[in-house]
Protein: 2-isopropylmalate synthase
Organism: Desulfosporosinus acididurans
Amino acid sequence: MERIMLCDTTLRDGEQAPGVALGFREKEMIARALADAGIDELEVGVPAVGESEIKTISRLAALHLPVRLITWNRAVLTDLQASYRTGVEGVAISIPASEQQIRNKLRKDRAWVLEQMGQCILNARKEVDYIVLGLEDASRADFIFLAEILAEAERLGVKRVRFADTVGILEPLKVFFTLQDLVRMSGIPLEFHAHNDLGMAVANSLAAVQAGFKAVSVTVGGLGERAGNAPLEEVAVALRYALSEEIDIDLKCLNTIASLVSLATGRPIPRAKPIIGQDVFTHTSSIHIDGLKKDFHNYQTFPPETVGRQHTTSFGKYSGRKSILRLLKTKGIELDQETIDKLLAKILRRACEIKRVLREDDIMEIVVSSC
Protein backbone atom coordinates (compact mmCIF):
# COMPACT_ATOMS: atom_id res chain seq x y z
CA MET A 1 0.00 0.00 0.00
CA GLU A 2 1.31 3.47 -0.92
CA ARG A 3 1.86 5.49 2.22
CA ILE A 4 0.45 8.97 2.90
CA MET A 5 2.95 11.79 3.36
CA LEU A 6 2.70 14.00 6.44
CA CYS A 7 4.04 17.47 5.67
CA ASP A 8 4.52 19.49 8.84
CA THR A 9 4.33 23.28 8.77
CA THR A 10 4.54 24.01 12.51
CA LEU A 11 7.66 26.13 11.96
CA ARG A 12 5.93 28.21 9.28
CA ASP A 13 2.13 28.25 9.41
CA GLY A 14 2.17 27.25 13.07
CA GLU A 15 4.40 30.19 13.95
CA GLN A 16 1.84 32.50 12.33
CA ALA A 17 -0.46 31.84 15.31
CA PRO A 18 -1.05 35.00 17.36
CA GLY A 19 1.63 35.56 19.98
CA VAL A 20 3.89 32.72 18.81
CA ALA A 21 7.55 33.47 18.08
CA LEU A 22 10.15 30.70 18.15
CA GLY A 23 13.88 31.18 18.60
CA PHE A 24 16.44 29.05 16.80
CA ARG A 25 16.98 26.63 19.70
CA GLU A 26 13.25 26.04 19.98
CA LYS A 27 12.96 25.49 16.25
CA GLU A 28 15.92 23.14 16.29
CA MET A 29 14.43 21.03 19.09
CA ILE A 30 11.05 20.82 17.32
CA ALA A 31 12.64 20.03 13.96
CA ARG A 32 14.85 17.32 15.48
CA ALA A 33 11.91 15.76 17.33
CA LEU A 34 9.74 15.67 14.20
CA ALA A 35 12.58 14.32 12.06
CA ASP A 36 13.40 11.62 14.62
CA ALA A 37 9.73 10.64 14.72
CA GLY A 38 9.72 10.09 10.96
CA ILE A 39 7.89 13.12 9.56
CA ASP A 40 8.13 13.27 5.76
CA GLU A 41 8.70 16.98 5.26
CA LEU A 42 9.23 20.17 7.27
CA GLU A 43 8.22 23.60 6.05
CA VAL A 44 10.60 25.69 8.11
CA GLY A 45 9.82 29.33 7.46
CA VAL A 46 9.55 32.31 5.12
CA PRO A 47 12.99 33.65 4.10
CA ALA A 48 11.45 36.81 2.62
CA VAL A 49 10.72 37.95 6.19
CA GLY A 50 14.32 39.11 6.45
CA GLU A 51 17.94 38.35 7.26
CA SER A 52 17.19 36.92 10.69
CA GLU A 53 14.80 34.39 9.20
CA ILE A 54 17.28 33.49 6.46
CA LYS A 55 19.96 32.90 9.08
CA THR A 56 17.66 30.70 11.20
CA ILE A 57 16.59 28.57 8.25
CA SER A 58 20.20 28.29 7.05
CA ARG A 59 21.21 26.94 10.46
CA LEU A 60 18.38 24.41 10.33
CA ALA A 61 19.48 23.31 6.86
CA ALA A 62 23.06 22.95 8.13
CA LEU A 63 21.89 20.34 10.66
CA HIS A 64 21.35 17.89 7.75
CA LEU A 65 18.35 16.30 9.42
CA PRO A 66 16.96 13.12 7.82
CA VAL A 67 13.96 14.95 6.39
CA ARG A 68 13.27 17.26 3.45
CA LEU A 69 13.23 20.95 4.41
CA ILE A 70 11.27 23.44 2.32
CA THR A 71 10.46 27.13 2.62
CA TRP A 72 7.28 29.07 1.85
CA ASN A 73 7.38 31.76 -0.83
CA ARG A 74 5.06 34.02 -2.72
CA ALA A 75 5.25 33.73 -6.49
CA VAL A 76 7.85 36.48 -6.43
CA LEU A 77 11.43 36.05 -7.64
CA THR A 78 12.91 38.01 -4.72
CA ASP A 79 11.21 35.59 -2.28
CA LEU A 80 12.78 32.65 -4.07
CA GLN A 81 16.20 34.26 -4.19
CA ALA A 82 16.07 34.63 -0.41
CA SER A 83 15.17 30.93 -0.13
CA TYR A 84 18.08 29.81 -2.31
CA ARG A 85 20.46 31.43 0.17
CA THR A 86 19.30 29.13 2.98
CA GLY A 87 20.44 25.86 1.44
CA VAL A 88 17.10 24.07 1.79
CA GLU A 89 16.27 21.21 -0.56
CA GLY A 90 12.95 22.56 -1.78
CA VAL A 91 10.62 25.52 -2.05
CA ALA A 92 6.88 25.97 -1.88
CA ILE A 93 5.62 28.61 -4.29
CA SER A 94 2.21 29.95 -3.31
CA ILE A 95 -0.24 31.58 -5.71
CA PRO A 96 -3.82 32.72 -5.10
CA ALA A 97 -6.17 30.50 -7.09
CA SER A 98 -9.58 32.02 -6.38
CA GLU A 99 -11.11 34.91 -8.27
CA GLN A 100 -11.68 36.55 -4.90
CA GLN A 101 -7.98 36.74 -4.12
CA ILE A 102 -6.70 37.22 -7.68
CA ARG A 103 -8.86 40.29 -8.23
CA ASN A 104 -9.30 41.66 -4.73
CA LYS A 105 -5.88 40.94 -3.23
CA LEU A 106 -3.46 40.90 -6.16
CA ARG A 107 -5.51 43.23 -8.40
CA LYS A 108 -4.51 40.95 -11.30
CA ASP A 109 -6.12 38.41 -13.62
CA ARG A 110 -5.73 34.68 -14.30
CA ALA A 111 -3.32 35.19 -17.18
CA TRP A 112 -0.96 37.13 -14.90
CA VAL A 113 -1.13 34.36 -12.27
CA LEU A 114 -0.19 31.67 -14.79
CA GLU A 115 2.63 33.79 -16.22
CA GLN A 116 4.08 34.63 -12.79
CA MET A 117 3.74 31.03 -11.66
CA GLY A 118 5.59 29.79 -14.73
CA GLN A 119 8.45 32.25 -14.33
CA CYS A 120 8.95 31.32 -10.69
CA ILE A 121 8.83 27.57 -11.27
CA LEU A 122 11.35 27.74 -14.12
CA ASN A 123 13.61 29.89 -11.97
CA ALA A 124 13.34 27.51 -9.00
CA ARG A 125 14.15 24.47 -11.12
CA LYS A 126 17.64 25.89 -11.64
CA GLU A 127 18.28 26.16 -7.91
CA VAL A 128 16.45 23.44 -5.94
CA ASP A 129 15.51 19.80 -6.36
CA TYR A 130 11.95 19.87 -5.08
CA ILE A 131 9.14 22.30 -5.91
CA VAL A 132 5.70 22.41 -4.29
CA LEU A 133 3.08 24.61 -5.91
CA GLY A 134 0.65 25.94 -3.31
CA LEU A 135 -2.80 27.00 -4.45
CA GLU A 136 -4.00 29.55 -1.91
CA ASP A 137 -7.79 29.70 -1.42
CA ALA A 138 -8.20 26.76 -3.79
CA SER A 139 -11.43 25.78 -2.04
CA ARG A 140 -13.11 28.89 -3.51
CA ALA A 141 -11.44 28.67 -6.93
CA ASP A 142 -13.08 27.93 -10.26
CA PHE A 143 -12.65 24.24 -11.10
CA ILE A 144 -11.72 24.93 -14.73
CA PHE A 145 -8.95 27.27 -13.63
CA LEU A 146 -7.68 24.71 -11.12
CA ALA A 147 -7.48 22.16 -13.93
CA GLU A 148 -5.53 24.63 -16.04
CA ILE A 149 -3.07 25.27 -13.21
CA LEU A 150 -2.57 21.53 -12.61
CA ALA A 151 -1.81 20.88 -16.26
CA GLU A 152 0.70 23.73 -16.36
CA ALA A 153 2.32 22.63 -13.08
CA GLU A 154 2.81 19.12 -14.44
CA ARG A 155 4.26 20.46 -17.69
CA LEU A 156 6.73 22.63 -15.75
CA GLY A 157 7.97 19.76 -13.57
CA VAL A 158 6.39 20.58 -10.19
CA LYS A 159 6.74 17.67 -7.75
CA ARG A 160 3.54 18.24 -5.75
CA VAL A 161 0.55 20.59 -5.73
CA ARG A 162 -0.91 21.83 -2.44
CA PHE A 163 -4.66 22.46 -2.38
CA ALA A 164 -5.31 24.97 0.41
CA ASP A 165 -8.66 25.42 2.14
CA THR A 166 -7.33 28.77 3.28
CA VAL A 167 -10.45 30.04 5.04
CA GLY A 168 -11.57 26.62 6.29
CA ILE A 169 -14.87 26.70 4.41
CA LEU A 170 -15.05 23.11 3.15
CA GLU A 171 -16.89 20.13 4.63
CA PRO A 172 -15.96 16.44 4.22
CA LEU A 173 -18.59 15.38 1.67
CA LYS A 174 -17.75 18.27 -0.63
CA VAL A 175 -14.04 17.51 -0.25
CA PHE A 176 -14.53 13.85 -1.13
CA PHE A 177 -16.88 14.21 -4.07
CA THR A 178 -15.32 17.35 -5.57
CA LEU A 179 -11.63 16.60 -5.23
CA GLN A 180 -11.80 13.15 -6.80
CA ASP A 181 -12.01 14.89 -10.16
CA LEU A 182 -8.82 16.83 -9.42
CA VAL A 183 -7.04 13.60 -8.56
CA ARG A 184 -8.14 11.98 -11.81
CA MET A 185 -6.80 14.83 -13.93
CA SER A 186 -3.53 15.31 -12.02
CA GLY A 187 -0.39 13.48 -13.04
CA ILE A 188 1.44 14.63 -9.89
CA PRO A 189 0.64 14.02 -6.19
CA LEU A 190 -1.78 16.36 -4.45
CA GLU A 191 -1.52 17.64 -0.88
CA PHE A 192 -4.42 18.91 1.22
CA HIS A 193 -3.81 21.92 3.47
CA ALA A 194 -6.72 22.41 5.88
CA HIS A 195 -7.63 25.25 8.21
CA ASN A 196 -9.90 24.63 11.17
CA ASP A 197 -12.22 27.65 11.11
CA LEU A 198 -15.33 25.45 11.20
CA GLY A 199 -13.73 22.64 13.21
CA MET A 200 -13.44 20.28 10.25
CA ALA A 201 -9.72 20.34 9.42
CA VAL A 202 -9.11 16.70 10.42
CA ALA A 203 -12.31 15.40 8.80
CA ASN A 204 -11.56 17.32 5.60
CA SER A 205 -7.98 16.04 5.53
CA LEU A 206 -9.17 12.43 5.81
CA ALA A 207 -11.80 13.01 3.13
CA ALA A 208 -9.06 14.34 0.83
CA VAL A 209 -7.01 11.18 1.39
CA GLN A 210 -10.09 9.07 0.64
CA ALA A 211 -10.49 11.10 -2.56
CA GLY A 212 -6.95 10.17 -3.60
CA PHE A 213 -4.69 12.87 -2.17
CA LYS A 214 -1.23 11.55 -1.27
CA ALA A 215 -0.12 14.17 1.25
CA VAL A 216 -1.60 16.08 4.18
CA SER A 217 -0.36 19.34 5.65
CA VAL A 218 -0.34 19.41 9.47
CA THR A 219 0.93 21.31 12.50
CA VAL A 220 1.64 20.02 16.01
CA GLY A 221 -1.43 20.55 18.16
CA GLY A 222 -3.18 22.26 15.25
CA LEU A 223 -1.14 25.43 15.82
CA GLY A 224 -1.78 28.14 13.23
CA GLU A 225 -3.59 31.32 12.30
CA ARG A 226 -7.11 31.95 13.57
CA ALA A 227 -8.55 28.53 14.57
CA GLY A 228 -5.37 26.78 13.44
CA ASN A 229 -4.53 23.92 11.09
CA ALA A 230 -5.08 20.17 10.99
CA PRO A 231 -3.31 18.73 14.08
CA LEU A 232 -0.50 16.31 13.27
CA GLU A 233 -1.37 13.92 16.10
CA GLU A 234 -5.06 13.68 15.21
CA VAL A 235 -4.47 13.25 11.49
CA ALA A 236 -1.73 10.65 12.02
CA VAL A 237 -3.75 8.49 14.42
CA ALA A 238 -6.93 8.82 12.34
CA LEU A 239 -5.07 7.81 9.18
CA ARG A 240 -3.73 4.73 10.94
CA TYR A 241 -6.85 3.64 12.84
CA ALA A 242 -9.82 5.13 10.97
CA LEU A 243 -8.56 4.69 7.40
CA SER A 244 -5.92 1.94 7.90
CA GLU A 245 -3.44 4.02 5.87
CA GLU A 246 0.31 3.51 5.93
CA ILE A 247 2.29 6.37 7.50
CA ASP A 248 5.91 6.56 8.60
CA ILE A 249 5.66 8.63 11.77
CA ASP A 250 6.18 6.93 15.14
CA LEU A 251 2.91 7.53 16.99
CA LYS A 252 4.58 7.02 20.39
CA CYS A 253 6.51 10.27 19.85
CA LEU A 254 3.42 12.45 19.41
CA ASN A 255 2.86 13.35 23.06
CA THR A 256 6.49 14.30 23.61
CA ILE A 257 6.47 16.49 20.51
CA ALA A 258 3.21 18.13 21.55
CA SER A 259 4.58 18.90 25.01
CA LEU A 260 7.72 20.38 23.47
CA VAL A 261 5.70 22.67 21.20
CA SER A 262 3.40 23.62 24.07
CA LEU A 263 6.36 24.71 26.19
CA ALA A 264 8.01 26.56 23.30
CA THR A 265 4.87 28.49 22.41
CA GLY A 266 3.46 29.02 25.88
CA ARG A 267 0.17 27.44 24.81
CA PRO A 268 -1.19 24.85 27.25
CA ILE A 269 -2.65 21.65 25.81
CA PRO A 270 -6.41 21.50 26.54
CA ARG A 271 -7.22 18.61 28.89
CA ALA A 272 -9.66 17.05 26.43
CA LYS A 273 -7.52 17.55 23.31
CA PRO A 274 -7.70 14.32 21.28
CA ILE A 275 -4.61 12.10 21.51
CA ILE A 276 -2.47 14.50 23.57
CA GLY A 277 -4.85 15.89 26.22
CA GLN A 278 -4.36 14.93 29.86
CA ASP A 279 -7.85 13.44 30.20
CA VAL A 280 -8.40 11.62 26.91
CA PHE A 281 -7.58 8.17 28.31
CA THR A 282 -9.02 8.81 31.78
CA HIS A 283 -12.30 7.17 32.82
CA THR A 284 -14.49 8.40 35.66
CA SER A 285 -17.86 6.76 35.12
CA SER A 286 -18.15 3.51 37.06
CA ILE A 287 -19.93 1.95 34.06
CA HIS A 288 -16.93 2.71 31.85
CA ILE A 289 -14.39 1.57 34.41
CA ASP A 290 -16.23 -1.70 34.95
CA GLY A 291 -16.47 -2.22 31.19
CA LEU A 292 -12.74 -1.60 30.74
CA LYS A 293 -11.90 -4.11 33.45
CA LYS A 294 -13.89 -6.74 31.59
CA ASP A 295 -12.53 -5.91 28.11
CA PHE A 296 -10.63 -2.79 26.99
CA HIS A 297 -12.45 -2.87 23.66
CA ASN A 298 -15.70 -1.97 25.42
CA TYR A 299 -14.55 1.66 25.67
CA GLN A 300 -11.35 1.84 23.64
CA THR A 301 -11.05 3.61 20.30
CA PHE A 302 -7.49 2.39 19.86
CA PRO A 303 -4.83 1.12 22.30
CA PRO A 304 -3.45 4.16 24.19
CA GLU A 305 -0.09 2.38 24.38
CA THR A 306 0.33 2.99 20.63
CA VAL A 307 0.68 6.69 21.37
CA GLY A 308 2.70 6.21 24.54
CA ARG A 309 -0.25 6.56 26.91
CA GLN A 310 -2.28 4.26 29.15
CA HIS A 311 -5.77 4.07 30.61
CA THR A 312 -6.24 5.77 33.96
CA THR A 313 -9.21 6.18 36.26
CA SER A 314 -10.43 9.04 38.41
CA PHE A 315 -13.24 9.67 40.85
CA GLY A 316 -16.05 12.11 40.20
CA LYS A 317 -19.80 12.60 40.32
CA TYR A 318 -20.47 9.47 38.27
CA SER A 319 -18.05 7.18 40.06
CA GLY A 320 -19.94 4.34 41.71
CA ARG A 321 -19.51 1.74 44.40
CA LYS A 322 -17.33 -0.59 42.31
CA SER A 323 -14.76 2.12 41.70
CA ILE A 324 -14.45 2.91 45.40
CA LEU A 325 -14.33 -0.74 46.42
CA ARG A 326 -11.61 -1.40 43.86
CA LEU A 327 -9.46 1.42 45.27
CA LEU A 328 -9.98 0.30 48.87
CA LYS A 329 -9.05 -3.25 47.94
CA THR A 330 -5.74 -2.10 46.47
CA LYS A 331 -5.05 -0.34 49.79
CA GLY A 332 -5.96 -3.42 51.83
CA ILE A 333 -8.97 -1.70 53.42
CA GLU A 334 -12.22 -3.54 54.18
CA LEU A 335 -15.32 -1.65 55.35
CA ASP A 336 -18.88 -2.67 56.13
CA GLN A 337 -21.75 -1.82 53.80
CA GLU A 338 -23.09 1.09 55.88
CA THR A 339 -19.67 2.76 56.01
CA ILE A 340 -19.20 2.28 52.27
CA ASP A 341 -22.54 3.98 51.57
CA LYS A 342 -21.66 6.96 53.76
CA LEU A 343 -18.21 7.16 52.23
CA LEU A 344 -19.61 7.16 48.70
CA ALA A 345 -22.03 9.98 49.56
CA LYS A 346 -19.16 12.08 50.95
CA ILE A 347 -17.01 11.43 47.89
CA LEU A 348 -19.75 12.47 45.49
CA ARG A 349 -20.50 15.59 47.55
CA ARG A 350 -16.82 16.53 47.61
CA ALA A 351 -16.48 16.07 43.83
CA CYS A 352 -19.41 18.43 43.25
CA GLU A 353 -17.98 21.01 45.68
CA ILE A 354 -14.52 21.28 44.14
CA LYS A 355 -15.72 20.74 40.52
CA ARG A 356 -12.88 18.49 39.49
CA VAL A 357 -12.06 14.80 39.55
CA LEU A 358 -10.74 13.43 42.83
CA ARG A 359 -7.27 11.96 43.05
CA GLU A 360 -6.50 8.86 45.07
CA ASP A 361 -5.06 10.94 47.89
CA ASP A 362 -8.29 12.98 47.97
CA ILE A 363 -10.28 9.76 48.37
CA MET A 364 -7.98 8.41 51.05
CA GLU A 365 -8.24 11.65 53.01
CA ILE A 366 -12.03 11.22 53.07
CA VAL A 367 -11.64 7.57 54.07
CA VAL A 368 -9.34 8.42 56.98
CA SER A 369 -11.61 11.20 58.23
CA SER A 370 -14.65 8.90 58.02
CA CYS A 371 -13.24 5.90 59.86
Q: What stands out?
A: Residues 337-354 form the longest helix (18 residues).
